[in-house]
Design a protein that fits this description.
Strand content: 5-15%
CATH class of the largest domain: Alpha Beta
Mean pLDDT: 95
CATH topology of the largest domain: Aspartate Aminotransferase, domain 2
Shape: globular
Number of helices: 14
Order of helices and strands: HEEEHHEHEHEHEHEHEEHHHEEHHEEH
Distance between the termini: 25 Å
Bound molecules: pyridoxal-5'-phosphate
Strand order of the largest sheet: 4-10-9-8-7-5-6
Radius of gyration: 21 Å
CATH superfamily of the largest domain: Type I PLP-dependent aspartate aminotransferase-like (Major domain)
Amino acid sequence: MSRSEEFFKLAQRTFVGGVNSPVRAFKAVGGTPIFFERARGAHLFDVDGQRYVDYVGSWGPMILGHAHPAVVKAAERALERGSSFGAPCPAELDLAWLVRDAVPSVELIRFTSSGTEACLSALRLARGFTGRKLIVKFAGCYHGHGDSLLVAAGSGALTLGQPTSQGVPEELARLTLVLPYNDPAALQKAFKKYGPKIAAVIVEPVVGNMGVVTPSAEFLEALDRLPRKNGALLIADEVMTGFRVALGGAQRALGLRPDLTTFGKIIGGGLPVGALGGARKIMEKLAPLGPVYQAGTLSGNPVAMAAGAATLTVLKREPPYKVLQDRTDSLTYGLRAIARRNRRDITVNAFGSMFTMFFTKGPVTDLASAEKADTRAYGKFFHGLRKRGVYFPPSQFEAAFVSAAHSPADIEKTLAAADAAFHEV
Ligand SMILES: *Cc1c(COP(=O)(O)O)cnc(C)c1O
């Protein structure tokens, strides 16, 4: 038995399903989760002494690679000065200004401890600001596990949502309208039918959470126009895309003008951070200025702020986005070529340094087309890579990430592993 297997046995007696977040359990690919001991640059090291080229990057935050010296130093220094004050500290301003500088739609900002908190606070704020109740979300988009947002199915354009998680009251789920992604006509219809009741449209401007799916020009145009025209707010959930696809996030890359934006992942540099920000007149509705309550014991935590600020400072001083694009291009072109040689139908969707290899002919433009992917084939491919020291997301429906620490040699090693893994699919 490997040490990972031993640890997993113990963990299953201690944690629900052996994990503290469900995807980590490998249910979607089979086998036993790998227990990691440490990470550096583009590499993870497991408890059995195996090294992996990492494409999970802690699900997005590690854009500079693991244990970047500037981030480690900043966090260590902050920790020495005290790990939490429960009161304002200058480090909050450092991070806030870095975010605001890069994302002009953010006039005021509020830090939280996770992306989930940021998204559910943004919904409460949108409802409080507009005095309306309905929320529009898109099937396949993930906005954390707040009750109103755990409504995902309901494929018919205007079907009122059904909770996909038990424990979400039907009464609440009914307030979330679920529409197909990339379907401007469905959005138009929703506004026609429910316009004056819709508080907000929340969207991943580039989706990572059904695998990577990019928005069409028509869909973007509808997102930009319809909420504003109908007095609803547009919430760009940039928890994944913020500082990932560009310094200014997806809204900058795509020319989207959201009223509110949520952040997480990269802005915490690998520590627990989230944020919501947007137009002053909306943000001022939050407590203590306004009537919408929102709070957090560890919000604006000095160690997390320091790690986040160090990360954004490196991103700003030495923007890696061009190199990230080149590396990701080499990888995705390579994967497509290998698939062709092996006569496999795959679709590789990518945006900046996020990508997903779907085991389907494609195109993949929404949840329905993503779900056509052969998840068993993906599972075999995943384990083929794992055996050869390459760690992909343990689910077909997740984004993979290239970091600034991935070298051309890492990409080559990955492509060689992919070639061998394809023979086993
Ligand atoms: C990860 C993610 C979240 C949730 O953030 P947590 O920090 O895991 O709570 C929300 N929205 C998007 C788009 C995400 O990728």
